[in-house]
Design brief:
Length: 222
């Protein structure tokens, strides 16, 4: 197996998913906006008991998900180092409270760029290769199963993610690419019903589902 790529490898779901795939012996590539975040994530992954002598290979790349050039370069660098990925997880998000009319147009565009366009850019870069190889998983972290007026930009973004996953499934699913979203219906925190380690199990289960049982959306309701 060539391994897993996690875009948005910050503390919480991103690192938990990376650790979950590493535990199965998959090499892991981590993409985040800062070196500090990547250092912490890489240390967490390397600390996982994997059964692989010396641990699984871990590759890191700095990229902002809204910077198309940097994001595509990071994905290319990960593939050059670890090989074409078996699974890519898009976990980047801009989460902030805002009510109708509170944000400027630019602020809404910034949120949309992180929450939706970055996922589209990532998928457009990796899914065609998966389709040519006849398999792979592209999984997006979703949320907001119901829109909330106190989280307008996030509600719009997560609705966009749901639509994007449907579109990508129609485009690449027939070629063997499992496109899915894990919808998290609450605030993520260790030791709660929304513990990131529990949520990470959904990603592994989606990646290993037989094709005849593919799910396009899993909701973690706590």
């Amino acid at each position: 197996m060539s391994g897993a790529v996690v875009v948005g490898a910050g503390p919480g779901i991103g690192q938990a998913v990376a650790r979950r795939f590493a535990r199965e012996g998959l090499p892991v590539a981590l993409v985040a906006r800062s070196e500090e975040t990547l250092k912490s994530a890489a240390e967490a992954v390397r600390a996982v008991e994997t059964g692989v002598p010396g641990g699984v290979p871990v590759f890191t790349a700095v990229a902002d998900s809204t910077d198309e050039t940097a994001l595509r370069a990071a994905l290319d660098a990960a593939a050059a180092e670890l090989g074409p990925p078996d699974v890519v997880v898009y976990n980047a998000a801009l989460i902030r409270p805002d009510r109708p009319g509170e944000l400027s147009v630019r602020a809404h565009q910034e949120a949309w760029a992180v929450n939706v366009v970055g996922a589209l850019t990532t998928a457009a870069h990796v899914a065609p290769g998966m389709a040519r190889r006849g398999g792979g998983s592209f999984i997006v972290t979703g949320g907001m199963p119901e829109a909330k007026p106190e989280y307008v930009s996030l509600s719009l973004g997560k609705a966009g993610v749901r639509a994007l996953v449907e579109l990508l499934d129609k485009e690449y699913g027939p070629s063997g690419v499992h496109v899915a979203t894990v919808t998290v219906a609450g605030p993520v925190a260790p030791g709660t019903p929304f513990d990131p380690d529990d949520i990470a199990e959904h990603y592994w289960r989606l990646h290993t589902q037989p094709r005849e049982r593919w799910q396009r959306e899993v909701v973690h309701s706590g």
